[in-house]
Amino acid sequence: MDLIVTFISDLVHQVFDFSCILTWICLRVTSLSILTCNFFFNLWCSLSNGLECAFDYLESCDQNLFVCTLNSGWIFIKSLKDFYFDITYSMTMWQILAVCLWLGIITFSPTIRKIMLNCIAFLLVGSFAALTKLVRRKMQNKKVQAKKWSLIGVFTFLVTASAKGIYRICFRRKSKKTIDPNLTCIVCIDRQKSVLLMPCKHVCLCEECTSGLFNSRKIGICPLCRVVITNTMSIYM
Question: What's domain 177-237's superfamily in CATH?
Answer without folding.
Answer: Zinc/RING finger domain, C3HC4 (zinc finger) (3.30.40.10)
